[in-house]
């Protein structure tokens, strides 16, 4: 039986897909990249707030760490619902609203006087806003606008967060040290608001909005808005939870969050300061991690297009675990060559796990992959939240962060083994 070769709509009321020399998908990816950079300031600040808030308000590090943990947990738990909301209301509306909530929460912290206000403003408001700007945003843009080069684009958009860290960390650390933490919080708010016009004017929800096919794919009509966003997010979770790969991906990504956002991003600066290193120098090292994270994440996206994702994950987690085991021996009052080597090595691996994790979600869960990845990201942030709190508690109890470094190194070894257990989906 002959097959039809008509792949694009030809009815007069339907646009004909064009194939421009420069595809609009790359412009959308560029706007997404700039948006994530502008929103990255909020992720750079928590580690710089611990010492100033402890000194000004006499709050324990465990209390401050709890507020950060609420932020990180909500960042993850909001992500799958944000992905579903993007299917319902569009990317532009959800991202613009999220940036506004981030700005509001950051501004309100300037007038706080009690620890519960830190939890509410920074933990809840900024956590909810940042969760809607989470990696599910990058996954949704990639899934809609790209058929080819998805791994590379995922790596580039993931690296945007590291680029934002590179841009904002030195500035925020300088502000905190010379002018206090309040100007830094205002800077975060203004940075989030500055991106809103770019999102509203330049971002488009779907290739069909401009009469195009996805890059490397065939033209398709824009799907109708999906109602019941919350119900869909929960339904997708229940369906995915019946499969083994979901739990393995969630487990490995929880360890990923514990060993990056929860540990290093939150506690590296105060841990280095405990050993006599100036805050600006420690923040500068985190910024350098951001430089090499850009390289490592884009390279990981390139590798993901060419090699088996689960094996890449195993290598990444094993190398990260080894590096964390050596870190306690490298902390010192000044920056020395072994520490520089750690920063470069660890930076290359910071979020290199994201492109292969998204690829495995796409392989196993198809059209629901962005929402499934949102739930996997939720586990990432729950792991980060647990260690953000545990790290501050360990410092209060033991007077040192060393037990947390060693425990995270061991967890990374377990994540490497879990990644190898994930089976390839049969065609």
Automatic annotation (TrEMBL):
List membrane-spanning regions.
28-50, 62-82, 94-114, 120-139, 151-172, 184-203, 246-264, 284-303, 315-333, 339-360, 372-392, 404-422
Enumerate the GO terms in the molecular function aspect.
Answer: transmembrane transporter activity
Q: Which Pfam families match?
A: MFS_1 (PF07690)
Question: Transmembrane as a keyword?
Answer: yes
Q: Which Gene Ontology CC terms are recorded?
A: plasma membrane
Q: Which UniProt keywords apply?
A: Membrane, Transmembrane, Transmembrane helix
Protein name from the UniProt record: MFS transporter
């Amino acid at each position: 039986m002959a097959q039809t070769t008509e792949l694009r709509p030809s009815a007069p009321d339907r646009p004909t897909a064009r194939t421009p020399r420069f595809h609009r998908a790359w412009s959308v990816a560029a706007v997404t990249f700039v948006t994530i950079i502008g929103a990255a300031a909020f992720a750079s600040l928590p580690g710089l707030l611990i010492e100033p808030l402890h000194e000004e308000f006499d709050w324990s590090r465990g209390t401050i760490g709890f507020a950060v943990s609420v932020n990180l947990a909500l960042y993850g738990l909001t992500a799958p619902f944000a992905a579903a909301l993007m299917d319902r209301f569009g990317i532009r509306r959800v991202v613009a609203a999220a940036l506004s909530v981030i700005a509001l929460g950051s501004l309100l912290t300037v007038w706080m006087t009690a620890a519960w206000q830190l939890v509410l403003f920074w933990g809840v408001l900024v956590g909810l806003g940042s969760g809607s700007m989470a990696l599910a945003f990058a996954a949704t843009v990639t899934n809609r606008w790209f058929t080819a080069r998805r791994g590379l684009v995922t790596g580039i958009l993931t690296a945007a967060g590291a680029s934002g860290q590179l841009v904002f960390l030195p500035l925020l650390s300088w502000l905190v040290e010379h002018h206090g933490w309040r100007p830094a919080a205002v800077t975060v708010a203004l940075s989030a608001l500055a991106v809103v016009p770019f999102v509203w004017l330049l971002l488009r929800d779907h290739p069909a909005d401009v009469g195009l096919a996805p890059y490397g794919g065939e033209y398709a009509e824009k799907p109708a808005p999906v109602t019941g966003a919350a119900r869909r997010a929960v339904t997708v979770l229940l369906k995915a939870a019946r499969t083994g790969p979901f739990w393995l991906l969630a487990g490995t990504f929880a360890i990923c969050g514990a060993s990056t956002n929860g540990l290093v991003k939150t506690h590296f600066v105060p841990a280095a300061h405990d050993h006599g290193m100036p805050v600006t120098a420690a923040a500068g090292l985190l910024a350098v991690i951001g430089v090499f994270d850009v390289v490592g994440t884009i390279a990981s996206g390139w590798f993901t297009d060419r090699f088996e994702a689960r094996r890449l994950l195993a290598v990444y987690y094993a190398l990260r675990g080894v590096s964390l085991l050596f870190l306690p021996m490298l902390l010192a009052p000044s920056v020395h060559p072994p520490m520089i080597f750690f920063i470069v090595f660890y930076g290359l691996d910071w979020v290199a796990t994201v492109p292969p994790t998204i690829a495995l979600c796409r392989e196993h869960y198809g059209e629901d992959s962005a929402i499934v990845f949102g739930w996997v990201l939720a586990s990432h942030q729950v792991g980060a939240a647990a260690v953000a709190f545990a790290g501050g508690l360990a410092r209060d109890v033991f007077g040192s962060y060393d037990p947390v470094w060693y425990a995270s190194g061991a967890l990374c070894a377990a994540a490497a083994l879990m990644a190898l257990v994930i089976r390839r989906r049969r065609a």
